[in-house]
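Supplementary Text 2. Reproducibility record for the structural model of the 187-residue chain.

All settings were left at their defaults, and a single model was retained for analysis rather than an ensemble. We include the record here because the model underlies the residue-level annotations in Supplementary Table 4.
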Amino acid sequence: MHISRFFLILIIFFVGCEISSENQNTQSLLYKTVNNRDYFFNVDTLLKGAHSYIHVIMYEMTGSSDSLSEIELLKRDLCNKAESGVDVKVLLEHSGSNYSLNSYNEQSKSYLESAGAKVIFDDDNVITHSKLIIVDGRAIVIGSTNWSTSAIEYNNETSLMISNENIAGIYEVYFENLWTQYGGSSD
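Retained model, structure tokens:
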């Protein structure tokens, strides 16, 4: 009985239905797939709607010489929100051996910090391969999509946008633990 219930939940989850409980105390789970070219529009909209905080963990955040590229527009969203007083914190990968990745991430760090965002790197001995965005404790985006032109504009990538305070809370604890572990301030 439990196995068939598990597969039913998986089917409902992948089809895109709302999963809810009869218990009034349980919040419903709303989600949306944001694969391939759907990623930019959905994440751009989510970031622009942030009111109190945006917390990001990203393996790779590259740049583009085209200021209107989707990757530059997403980074600009973070800058605009930081400048407006939204708490923007970003944890990026810093590699002990991938110097081109470090260069991209260091440039993004400088750009975001110039607008007031707080940005830190992980330890060179750890690979932070996560791609996670948490907004206002109400929504997350999690999946395979790096913030690179190739990932956002060309690659096949899979991500989910989940609107659920309980799940967002779990990932906020995860974010805060890593943030503190790698020297981020709690302010």
